[in-house]
Design a protein that fits this description.
The chain is mostly helical and 155 residues long. Helix content is 67%, strand content 10%. The protein is built from four helices and three strands, in the order H-E-H-H-E-E-H. It has a three-stranded antiparallel beta sheet. Helix 2 packs antiparallel against helix 3. The mean pLDDT is 88.
Length: 155
């Protein structure tokens, strides 16, 4: 009984943390939308930008973006569900990618562009969803390229 209760509590914490990250991302976007004309701006590291393109501002026709993004999200959800059922560590980075992709999709639906506001001069303008996605991708790459080899070597 205690193990089952602990498992349920862990699951609630997992989903609440993901929902929390999603909400923080949405709230930051709303904040920058509502305060886009602050006197003096937000400094050089914050500026509101509507990105109609895909990652790294690569242009792609809108009739391709929506089906592509939806297909990718569905594929990620299927992969996440398989990992989640097995309690595999990669369900975490997949979940980060999913919540980031869903939030950016909501932007596209509501504003016909993704709301970006973190400005790294001479690099890019991005948002928290992009950080979630990048973190998830790096985590998966690290696992696949290094961690799996480490486990095999130490068996």
């Amino acid at each position: 009984y205690d193990l089952e209760k602990k498992s349920i509590i862990t699951m609630y914490k997992y989903f609440l943390s993901l929902i929390g990250l999603f909400i923080v991302d949405r709230l930051t976007k709303v904040y920058f939308l509502r305060n886009s004309s602050l006197p003096g701006g937000w400094g050089e590291f914050f500026s509101l930008y509507f990105n109609p393109d895909i990652a790294f501002s690569i242009p792609l026709a809108i009739f391709i973006i929506y089906p592509l993004v939806i297909l990718i999200i569905v594929g990620l959800i299927v992969a996440w569900w398989k990992k989640f059922k097995k309690k595999h560590i990669l369900h975490w980075p997949l979940a980060l990618i999913i919540i980031g992709a869903l939030s950016n999709l909501l932007d596209r639906i509501n504003y016909n562009a993704v709301i970006d506001f973190i400005n790294i001069p001479f690099f890019s303008v991005f948002n928290l969803s992009d950080i979630y996605i990048t973190t998830g991708v790096i985590w998966i790459l690290y696992f696949e390229l290094f961690y799996k080899k480490y486990i095999k070597l130490n068996k």
